[in-house]
């Protein structure tokens, strides 16, 4: 029997989602409970970040989220090539069935970092991403698929069950100029990276708009979601201290700030990067965190009191982000975050 359609979340003027999965100390059960709490608070989305640092697995986590919730949209990043297109389509269709048609599949490019960490040969990220999206969409129709690409080769394969939806939304996770231009052509939505300022977001949205214009696509068709590192405390200094560790992680690979600077991230001073790299080589994340200027922490996040954070999220919205996905810096901040952005009338 096919699952019944979920009761839709009542539309709101300002959608907001809760992002989880980055803190290695938080278990899947705890994250599923947080997703359920976000649903009760009226949040639109419960999102899971499957990161390069191999914390929890996205498919397993979303299954837990799906069983713990009834209404919220569920999303997770999955890097292409780490699973085959057939397995990704199989997983997406299964999770969509389990959740009653609430899944958003968010795919990210397979980069040199992923290749090195997983012991796989590197293929062109843009070509690989495009071929995965095309072949996954074909597989989700439930039909047999033959696909002949440079990276993806499928020979008369298909799912052995009929997906609940053939049109599961596919968003593209993108951080660089090249990735954003490509994302506007491929995705039903775009996921902007965490650890960026509203000024970066505005530049990214402008790139998306211009890319849409080149293919006669209405930019309003794209959902523009963004992961936003968030730290709420009664004391501003305590909020900065709680999130400093996470901002430091954005500078452990040289390619990460480079990608953001290609879009026009004004916070990052290129002259600082050698000093950051030296600190990381000398003492790891702890040393990098210690020397990181406070302006990086406050500019690349939403940090401070509840009023500060609310104003900062408004700035991301003003930049063109239609769905901020707020990620708390510490588990104890969750209740305050839900109170700050939840709807009072939500049940």
Fold and architecture overview:
Pfam families: Bac_luciferase. The protein has 347 residues and is α/β, with parallel strands linked by helices. It has a single domain, classed as TIM Barrel (Alpha-Beta Barrel). The strands form two sheets. An eight-stranded parallel barrel has the order 1-2-3-4-7-8-9-11, surrounded by eight helices. It has a two-stranded antiparallel sheet with strand order 5-6. Helix 1 crosses helix 2.
In short:
This protein is of the alpha/beta class and 347 residues long. The chain has helices at 28-40, 58-68, 85-99, 112-118, 125-139, 177-186, 198-214, 236-248, 255-263, 273-291, 294-299, 306-318, 334-341, and strands at 17-20, 45-48, 73-79, 103-108, 145-148, 153-157, 170-174, 189-192, 223-232, 302-304, 323-328.
């Amino acid at each position: 029997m096919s699952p019944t359609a979920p009761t839709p979340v009542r539309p709101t003027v300002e959608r907001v989602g809760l992002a989880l999965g980055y803190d290695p100390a938080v278990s899947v059960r705890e994250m599923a409970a947080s997703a359920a709490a976000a649903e009760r608070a009226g949040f639109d989305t419960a999102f899971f970040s499957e990161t390069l640092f191999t914390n929890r697995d996205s498919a397993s986590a979303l299954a837990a989220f799906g069983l713990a919730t009834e209404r919220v949209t569920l999303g997770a990043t999955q890097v292409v090539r780490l699973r085959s297109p057939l397995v990704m389509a199989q997983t997406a269709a299964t999770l969509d069935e389990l959740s009653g048609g609430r899944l958003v599949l968010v795919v990210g490019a397979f980069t040199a970092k992923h290749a090195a960490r997983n012991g796989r040969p590197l293929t062109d990220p843009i070509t690989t991403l495009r071929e995965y999206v095309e072949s996954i969409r074909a597989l989700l129709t439930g039909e047999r698929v033959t696909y002949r690409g440079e990276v993806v080769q499928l020979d008369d394969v298909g799912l052995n069950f009929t997906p609940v939806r053939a049109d599961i939304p596919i968003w593209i996770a993108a951080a660089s100029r090249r990735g954003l231009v490509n994302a506007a052509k491929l995705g039903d939505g775009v996921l902007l990276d965490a650890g960026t300022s509203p000024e970066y977001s505005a530049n990214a949205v402008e790139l998306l708009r211009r890319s849409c214009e080149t293919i006669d696509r209405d930019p309003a068709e794209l959902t523009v979601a963004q992961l936003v590192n968030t730290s709420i405390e009664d004391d501003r200094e305590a909020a900065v201290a709680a999130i400093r560790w996470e901002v430091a992680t954005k500078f452990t690979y040289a390619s990460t700030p480079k990608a953001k600077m290609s879009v026009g991230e004004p916070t990052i001073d290129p002259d600082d990067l050698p000093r950051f790299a030296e600190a990381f080589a000398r003492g790891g994340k702890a040393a990098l965190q210690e020397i990181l200027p406070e302006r990086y922490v406050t500019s690349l996040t939403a940090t401070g009191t509840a009023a500060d954070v609310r104003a900062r999220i408004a700035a991301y919205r003003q930049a063109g982000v239609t769905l901020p996905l707020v990620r708390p810096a510490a588990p104890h901040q969750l209740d305050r975050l839900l109170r700050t952005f939840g709807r009072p009338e939500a049940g």
